[in-house]
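[#protein-structures] MJ: dropping Transporter here for a structure pass
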Amino acid sequence: MSYKSHSHAQWSSRMAFVLAAVGSSVGLGNIWKFPYMTGESGGGAFVLVYLICIFLVGLPMLMSEWLLGRLGQKNPISTMGDITRRLKRSRAWVLIGVAGILGAYLILSFYSVIGGWALAYIQMAVVDTFSGLDNDSVGTLFGNLLASPVELLLWHSLFMIMTIGVVVGGVAGGLERAAKTLMPALAVLLVLLVGYAATTGAFAEGAAYLFTPDFSKITRDGILAALGHAFFTLSLGMGIMMAYGSYLSDDVNIGRSALIVVVMDTVIALLAGLAIFPIVFANGLDAAAGPGLIFQTLPLAFGNMAGGWLFGLLFFVLLVFAAWTSAISLLEPLVEWIEERSPLSRVGSTIVAGLATWALGLATVLSFNIWGDFAPLGMFDKFAGMTIFDLLDYVTSKLLLPLTGLATVLFVGWFMGRDELRSQLNMSDGAFALWRVAVRFIAPIGVVIVFVSSL
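AK: finished. structure tokens for Transporter:
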């Protein structure tokens, strides 16, 4: 069957590309996950380990995905198909593209539900729901949200409509426009919240907690968590960065752009910590509260401070913006594949991809309530008690993403020619040698450690 050809779009500028890549990287992982992981893993020592991991593992992997995308100039599956044919390598490497698109699809299906939680909390902040709540009341508020399939469905649907509405515009009208609007807005909101945190009387305590390493608190699990988060925060192994790289022109320096993205992603995560921990300490809350830090602990603080409704509103708008920019990028690989491999237009491809993702998200919605006791693989001890949401999270974060990331760096590091890599990256001899060591040895070993430990 022959399909109509689609001209492959390109980013209008390096800045547009960098902003879109940062938007993809900056998500719930930065604003929601990084602060609570830091709290659980001992503060500054975890941050230091994380910084080492993101530069030794995350950076070379990011460059590898962009490099493959730019070489192929197509969706991740077709890109790997073309490159393997040209290099006369096994067609099995095409599975990198397949697994990447599949991973992004599965992740967005439940990521959209969590994005919907943030939308629900914006509405709660607007009507001052948090005011005067105690610890039990805040927990009940969150529990009631999860227990209502109708409410979760409403917010999940709204979040997916927001995501489809951007991606349908294509590279220039959708991805770029969203990145140029949402990323500066996110930065302004974050700075405002850090400014507020500086007035709480616990800013110095929060900063010390974040930046003063206490190596006695470093554990094996903490190191593995830092390594895993460095890998996942940059949207690696999901086909996203390969898809974004396919829109990249030859004159963009991949190494320099990747360094900017890694630094900006890290700065935003640290700013989120500076915004959150002073509020936590000023209100006598637990920094190690885990995943509930954002949706249960912080509303308690917002409900008992002067002007808390406003700062609660700002915070959850920030959280939605972060989730939205990542959701846009998660939908893009599947849309790009459908658009290039079917007769559908950009609009049609986006609607089909968006509806398919929304439909799978219904399983996550129901896993928090009606299907809460349904464990699809409960006959196996390993998966006993795992809901559909738990399984989707496990399969993607523990299996698909590490394996896809590992295959990517192995292919680039060991099965592509040195000269071609050198011409694509346009780096100095020393920088290129360092990158090659990282992509051939350091990054693969890091991913294997995370993968084996997670199993």
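MJ: nice. The CA atoms of residues 4 and 201 lie 62 Å apart.
AK: one more thing. Residues 308-341 form the longest helix (34 residues).
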